[in-house]
Write a structure and sequence with these properties.
353 residues; alpha/beta; DNA polymerase, domain 1; TIM Barrel; 2 domains; 10-stranded mixed beta sheet; two-stranded antiparallel sheet; 12 helices; elongated; cytoplasm; methyltransferase; 4Fe-4S
């Protein structure tokens, strides 16, 4: 069993990496495409099911790789069609994945780490700290599992947001391999512009991502209009100050010509006053950007309150008056603890007593 645990996950590998492995085995190159087809189009759960591969090759695959095991601990369905999973991993850790249904298709929100070390004071993901990074395959498996849920309805995953627990840019290589697998035409073939990766502002990775030459959307969690307030809400700001984050955003826009989304969680009486909106507008004016205003989810451990509805609209109005595009995120799954980390936090309470 220990030997089994040391094998890499087959979902960790891009088609180029599978082609390299196939070549090493002395097999014809087209076999890599067949394997990818079995994994992502037919979505089988074992190498034995890959019936157009020769038996010796299936045996080699079985000896060399393993499938990701995601055990469904909990599945909660919201009145609005949102489905939230709590999956158990092979090492008894747990992660969350969410399927959100929109009128334009089905979106999956994936997790990139078990827990999180960023420490945002309004977020449940960070309770208990970071346990470990996920491999690319463990992130891929969340989308495959979600697609399997949609298969009987003849629906597909049409977009992906990397906004679940964890900081994807602190698990950069695995996140990038995950993205390469998702956009591969031979795989799930998700359009690049239908994928958004969200970061809390890990500046070196933001600069690196600007060089990747992708059409994938970038979202930055800022949640404050200045250094002092952002440091209180997001300890990561002490490592990567607000000005550096904004400068990295400007570099990304200049390099790619793509618009950035700024995520701003409105917290009652903390960062949601008209003066905050005015200050934020002055920072963002002239940038190719969009602000996504998020009424904060109530997290019992954090004791923050939601911004009143009228104040949310006033915040949006001030930004727009200053020519900063802003929308208010439509809430989904509010009745099923859909805030990142809440389900896992409850699970940890029950399993640790």
């Amino acid at each position: 069993m220990e030997n089994e645990q040391n094998k890499p996950f087959i979902y960790d590998f891009t088609i180029d990496q599978i082609q390299d492995w196939i070549k090493e085995q002395g097999e014809p190159a087209f076999r890599a495409g067949q394997i990818f087809d079995w994994l992502y189009v037919k979505r089988v759960g074992s190498f034995e099911d890959m019936t157009n591969l020769p038996k010796p090759l299936r045996d080699k695959l079985n000896d060399s790789f393993r499938f990701v095991t995601l055990t469904e601990i909990t599945k909660m369905s919201s009145k609005d069609g949102t489905v939230k999973f709590l999956f158990g991993l092979h090492d008894n850790h747990a992660i969350e994945t969410v399927i959100m249904r929109h009128n334009y298709g089905n979106s999956v929100c994936v997790t990139t780490q078990v827990g999180c070390r960023i420490g945002c004071t309004f977020c449940a993901s960070t309770l208990g700290g970071l346990k470990r990074d996920l491999t690319a395959g463990e992130i891929v498996a969340q989308v495959v599992q979600s697609q399997k849920l949609l298969d009987p309805e003849d629906e597909r995953v049409s977009s992906i947001v990397i906004m679940g627990s964890g900081e994807p840019f602190e698990n950069y290589d695995a996140t990038m391999n995950f993205l390469r697998i998702m956009i591969d035409p031979k795989g799930l073939n998700i359009g690049q512009r239908h994928i958004t990766v969200s970061t809390s502002g890990i500046v070196p990775s933001m600069l690196k991502f600007a060089e990747e030459n992708t059409q994938i959307n970038l979202a930055i969690s800022i949640h404050a209009p200045n250094d002092a307030l952002r440091s209180k809400l997001m300890p990561v700001n002490r490592r990567f100050p607000f000005e550096d984050v904004i400068n990295a955003c400007k570099y990304y826009i200049e390099k790619t010509g793509r618009r950035i989304t700024f995520e701003y969680a409105l917290i009652g009486g903390v960062n949601d006053r008209p003066e905050h909106a005015e200050e934020l507008a002055s920072v963002l004016q002239g940038m190719l950007c969009h602000v996504n205003l998020i009424p904060v989810n109530y997290v019992p451990e954090r004791d923050y309150v939601r911004t009143p509805r009228d104040d949310i609209f006033e915040f949006q109005r001030i930004l727009q008056k200053n020519n900063v595009n802003a929308t208010i995120r439509r809430e989904q799954g509010h009745d099923i603890a859909a805030a990142c980390g809440q389900l896992r936090a409850k699970h940890m309470e029950t399993t640790t007593g």
